[in-house]
């Protein structure tokens, strides 16, 4: 009898196969996440604000305080009523940040109070990307209330710090720092100064600063003392677009308190020349028109300074309401001017202020905004 060679196998166990398939599916599912984390096959996604895709034109960069934050927004000169919020920058309640727009119009340097006490506040230097909304801290424990100054490259910012801390501000340090917060470089330290104020750059590389002490106001160009510009306290300093002239306001006490418009020229060696303008009339605020290369001063109603720009751009832009303008800054083409409009009849009776954009077509109020940081062109 033949013996059958047929074999009988046990039922196949599929459980391990199902487990393997489940593991494979999980790996496939998380692969894009892992690639993003590890940086394989992915692109860095940069956040964007509405400003990144805004129409071309000139934009005024404005700020208003909302509790413990500054609301940074832009207003399009071609459509002044359109205001776009970009980012909120935190600070201590009761304070508003000062700042300046970078030369390329893409960044904003802000000095924001974030420490200390109301009587001895300390501030940080923050840099905001206007197109990205990204906020980074570049320096800490700097003097509050100052206006930071960008170098011509837009890569570094110049600010000041009380060398002895906010409780003993007898010495003031002037330093620059990269916008990224790296490479902080001490430029100079001034003892017994009432204030040190960087203004801008002359000849591209020479930092112009004003030092106020018991003798009045002195000018520093680069690392050189360029001499006295006044035996009084000065304010509202602005360099001309080419860096060859400085306009400012002198606080004179010779015949009562007066605020006098002044301009000086800087020669090639950085020395101060004779004052080219002296007016026995009060003025506040200075701005240079890049198109006409002339200085604009804000004067009291009824006053005038021969040879100096009036505060209104044209008859179409003149205000029909009483008051006076303090100029803040012109747009790049010189067509538009941001001013603080005061409702009063004089500097002694100034009334209430409001930011206004003055264009050849008229004026636009920005009632809730209190700060103008500069212009950005797209």
Can you describe what's shown?
- The protein has 1 helix and 25 strands.
- By secondary structure, the protein is mainly β.
- Strands 16-17-18-19-20 form a 5-stranded antiparallel sheet, with no helix packed on it.
- Strand 21 (324-330) and strand 22 (337-342) form a beta hairpin.
- The longest helix has 24 residues, at 15-38.
- It is globular.
Mean pLDDT: 83
**Elements, N to C (H/E):** HEEEEEEEEEEEEEEEEEEEEEEEEE
Query: What is the rounded distance between the termini?
Result: 100 Å
What characteristic shape results from the CA principal axes? Answer: globular
Estimated share of beta-strand residues: over 45%
Largest sheet: 5 strands, antiparallel
What are the main properties of this structure?
mainly beta, five-stranded antiparallel sheet, 1 helix, 25 strands, disordered N terminus
Summarize this entry quickly.
It contains one helix and 25 strands. The protein is mainly β and 378 residues long.
């Amino acid at each position: 009898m033949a013996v059958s060679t047929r074999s009988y196998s046990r039922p196949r166990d599929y459980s391990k196969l199902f487990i393997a398939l489940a593991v494979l599916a999980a790996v496939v599912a998380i692969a894009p996440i892992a690639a993003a984390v590890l940086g394989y096959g992915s692109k860095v996604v940069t956040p964007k604000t509405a400003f990144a895709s805004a129409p071309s034109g000139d934009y005024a960069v404005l700020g208003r305080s909302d509790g413990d934050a500054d609301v940074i927004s832009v207003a399009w000169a071609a459509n002044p009523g359109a205001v776009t919020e970009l980012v909120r920058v935190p600070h201590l309640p009761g304070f508003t940040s000062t700042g300046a727009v970078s030369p390329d119009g893409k960044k904003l340097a802000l000095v924001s109070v974030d420490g200390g006490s109301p009587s001895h506040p300390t501030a940080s230097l923050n840099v905001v990307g206007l197109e990205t909304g990204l906020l980074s801290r570049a320096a800490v424990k700097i003097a509050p209330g100052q206006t930071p100054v960008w170098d011509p490259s837009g890569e570094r910012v110049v600010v000041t710090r009380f060398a002895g801390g906010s409780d003993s501000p007898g010495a003031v340090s002037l330093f620059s720092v990269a916008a990224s917060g790296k490479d902080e470089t001490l430029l100079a330290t001034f003892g017994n100064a009432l204030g040190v104020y960087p203004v801008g750059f002359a000849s591209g590389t020479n930092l112009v600063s004003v030092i106020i002490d018991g003798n009045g106001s002195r000018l520093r160009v680069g690392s050189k003392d360029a001499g006295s510009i006044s035996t009084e306290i000065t304010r509202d300093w602005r360099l001309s677009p080419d860096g060859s002239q400085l306009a400012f306001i002198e606080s004179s006490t010779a015949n009562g308190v007066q605020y006098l418009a002044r301009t000086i020229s800087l020669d090639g060696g950085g020395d101060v020349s004779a004052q080219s303008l002296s007016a026995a009339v009060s003025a506040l605020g200075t701005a240079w028109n890049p198109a006409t290369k002339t200085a604009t001063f804000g004067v009291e109603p009824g006053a005038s300074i021969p040879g100096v720009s009036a505060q209104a751009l044209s008859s179409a832009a003149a205000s029909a309401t009483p008051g006076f303008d303090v100029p803040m800054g012109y747009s790049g083409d010189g067509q538009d001017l941001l001013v603080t409009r005061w409702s009063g009849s004089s500097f002694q009776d100034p009334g209430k202020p409001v930011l206004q954009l003055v264009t050849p077509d008229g004026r636009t109020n920005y009632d809730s905004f209190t700060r103008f940081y500069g212009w950005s062109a797209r």
